[in-house]
Amino acid sequence: xxxxxxxxxxxxxxxxxxxxxxxxxxxxxxxxxxxxxxxxxxxxxxxxxxxxxxxxxxxxxxxxxxxxxxxxxxxxxxxxxxxxxxxxxxxxxxxxxxxxxxxxxxxxxxxxxxxxxxxxxxxxxxxxxxxxxxxxxxxxxxxxxxxxxxxxxxxxxxxxxxxxxxxxxxxxxxxxxxxxxxxxxxxxxxxxxxxxxxxxxxxxxxxxxxxxxxxxxxxxxxxxxxxxxxxxxxxxxxxxxxxxxxxxxxxxxxxxxxxxxxxxxxxxxxxxxxxxxxxxxxxxxxxxxxxxxxxxxxxxxxxxxxxxxxxxxxxxxxxxxxxxxxxxxxxxxxxxxxxxxxxxxxxxxxxxxxxxxxxxxxxxxxxxxxxxxxxxxxxxxxxxxxxxxxxxxxxxxxxxxxxxxxxxxxxxxxxxxxxxxxxxxxxxxxxxxxxxxxxxxxxxxxxxxxxxxxxxxxxxxxxxxxxxxxxxxxxxxxxxxxxxxxxxxx
Length: 490
Description:
The chain is α+β, with helices and mostly antiparallel strands.
């Protein structure tokens, strides 16, 4: 089927986004001056200013606290007014350059001058030649075995300084893939706040990439970063993360050694040539007490486990559930969390009933779509903050992103579909997407995939695919959600 015109990429917003933080930005000097403006390799000035790649500028922090009245709650959390606890200055890159030092290209572009556009087409993993699948797994193992040029914190910000206020090294190197596991965890990390009764610091759940409006765009950016880092690592500029279409399956058809690895009766993924040595990090979440400065230690490793259909969830989502979800016209609805009714975001996320669209959220209760798949796979995938430790996460979220793209094209969604305010912390339209740096707004990621440098197989500009009839896209069957007009937020 016809693909969206790749020429649209030329008009995209310059996404100067990278991850937290380059090694050169966690020195005592950088932390004390609150400046992360590195010199890219091969250049002589910060941000590559000598060649016009970018310049070092003041970074406008998120005003999320004032917008949503989180000031009293979040003032002790390092993600409050992100990234101002760490840095006031960062690189602003000239399009098409990107990254914390402006030494990378925007998604979909390559070359010393970032002037070579390479079409990125994501395909179904079960439709790929098995040799291509195994090349993908080889790449993943390279990403698991080669260190990232970014580092991860071992402590919260308040505990990075001695009694005299001097910065003490609190960051560690880790493999490329593990770094993104850590980033996913950090977005879910418990928030630090002051107990109003005792005055002591404590912590509570505060998901900044789940259970509210930025769930889909945040994970879209996550996959783009993994994809680009693998492209750079391997030199395969056309590399694209494949997706796993789980709709209508009665079993996990990719939980075999030919794909993501088979597991034994105890859940151990121990026979796969590609994944038998893989492990989970950031899984000991009960120990990570942010109020005491403890966060995920990347060296705390647990063997990878997967238990498809062996837990409480015995089924994968049927195709009619996909059809219902794609037929919900509203991207999100109040209260913009797990309790939103007739919300595409909440329904795809798993907390909306796929017959009525009403929220069904009860802690440890029934889940649909996204959440149903996590629970069906089980093991590591059941631990949301560290679930990306299982490589099947990419196939799962790749398919969710494909459905997100089909929905955007079908409903001609633009940024006005995204709520301006009233969402959970970090999720408002113009809120900074935590913890990416330099900061980007949620609105910047709420674009169609072609504008972000990639496309999907078998999808035209209206979101139609050759197998759409299987989803039973019949609005008459689906109740009041489908009768409503799309809610827009101008």
